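Backbone-to-sequence.
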């Protein structure tokens, strides 16, 4: 899995829009807070009554999540922060108990509660602005009334001065409240951007570790299977042949010589198999001459014709080259064994973004699927272990196409 981080250019703060948000929250927020608190209090009180309160509390969790989701989206859009939407906790097990656990985890979700705290602070700021506005209007109204009803000019002037000063104070308070709202929102909700990036990186790292472990297990299983099915029986046969030769060397030297020659031939074949087995783990030519030469040698040994199109402007890390080499080797082996293909095409590029990309396509019958423990499963885990991604397309009737992308510096 690749993580991409983009920096956003924040536009100038829209003071007017922020002030409208604050005033709107101040108008409707108080009633929502009182109503929500009353609902939760009633729910807790009804818990002893056949668990009705628990059902109501579950509903409260969903309602709080909805408010938190709206608040997160509002702040993200208002300040163009690119904050990921709030998501309800997924249940790990598709059962009623799993759903209840998900609701319980959501009820203590830190992101949701930070968004709710931001809502409460926004309501408080809006309410303060409304109180100050009411005082300013009341003072202005009293001053105008004094002028109309003929009160002393001095008294009216003082009242008007207070009204003007109050209005200017209210304007300053509006600006200050808008700036404070922005700072609080970024502190409480905007930090979710960084947290989401860290969580994504942690998840990618965990997947990479799992892929590495799985790839190692599959590789060990493959080596064990190849040794058990190939080299081991051949060596056992060689030992038995040499044993017969030893018994017959005095009584029938000619037959013993023939048996020794057979054992010699069998031993050379076993050595060849061991070399091929080691080459399947890592081709030494990768270190000596690079991926291009290693793939040329691989194509030359393939049982079906392979067209290579390799354009590399430099070398990548040993891990990246080994991963791509393994993927191509496994793909060619699968094509020869299962696809009934008459040709394969392999394209390899070193892209500008620093990734080593490869595409393997055969003209076989298609229908390839990922099977746990199979070759394609090993391909996927090997790529994951290198921090890359893979995409398989194999419709019935063909063709089968596998694309992989691995960080060059992995």
């Amino acid at each position: 899995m690749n993580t991409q981080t983009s920096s956003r250019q924040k536009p100038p703060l829209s003071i007017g829009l922020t002030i409208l948000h604050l005033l709107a929250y101040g108008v409707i927020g108080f009633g929502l807070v009182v109503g929500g608190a009353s609902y939760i209090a009633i729910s807790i009180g009804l818990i002893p009554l056949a668990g009705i309160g628990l059902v109501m509390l579950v509903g409260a969790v969903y309602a709080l999540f909805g408010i938190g989701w709206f608040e997160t989206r509002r702040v993200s859009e208002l300040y163009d922060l690119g904050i990921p939407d709030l998501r309800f906790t997924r249940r790990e097990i598709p059962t009623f108990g799993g759903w209840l656990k998900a609701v319980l985890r959501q009820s203590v979700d830190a992101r949701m509660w930070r968004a709710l705290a931001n809502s409460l602070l926004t309501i408080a700021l809006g309410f303060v602005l409304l109180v100050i506005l009411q005082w300013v209007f009341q003072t202005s109204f009293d001053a105008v009334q004094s002028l109309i009803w003929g009160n002393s000019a001095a008294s009216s002037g003082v009242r008007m001065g207070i009204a003007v000063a109050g209005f200017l104070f209210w304007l300053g308070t509006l600006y200050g409240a808008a700036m404070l709202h922005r700072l609080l929102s970024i502190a409480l909700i905007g930090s979710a951007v960084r947290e989401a990036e860290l969580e994504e990186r942690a998840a990618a790292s965990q997947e990479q570790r799992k892929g590495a472990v799985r790839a190692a297990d599959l590789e060990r299983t493959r080596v064990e299977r190849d040794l058990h099915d190939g080299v081991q029986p051949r060596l056992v046969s060689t030992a038995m042949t040499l044993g017969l030769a030893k018994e017959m060397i005095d009584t029938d030297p000619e037959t013993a010589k023939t048996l020794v020659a057979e054992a010699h031939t069998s031993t050379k074949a076993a050595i060849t198999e061991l070399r091929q087995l080691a080459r399947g783990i890592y081709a030494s030519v990768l270190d000596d001459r690079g991926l291009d030469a290693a793939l040329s040698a691989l194509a030359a040994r393939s049982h079906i014709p392979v067209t290579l199109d390799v354009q590399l402007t430099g070398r990548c890390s040993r891990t990246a080259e080994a991963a791509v080499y393994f993927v191509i080797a496994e793909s060619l082996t699968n094509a020869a064994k299962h696809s009934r293909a008459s040709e394969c095409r392999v394209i390899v590029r070193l892209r500008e973004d620093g990734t080593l990309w490869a595409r393997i396509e055969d003209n076989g019958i298609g229908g390839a699927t990922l099977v746990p423990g199979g070759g394609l499963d090993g391909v996927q885990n090997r790529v994951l272990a290198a921090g890359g991604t893979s995409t398989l397309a194999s419709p019935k009737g063909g063709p089968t196409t596998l694309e992989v992308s691995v960080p060059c510096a992995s």
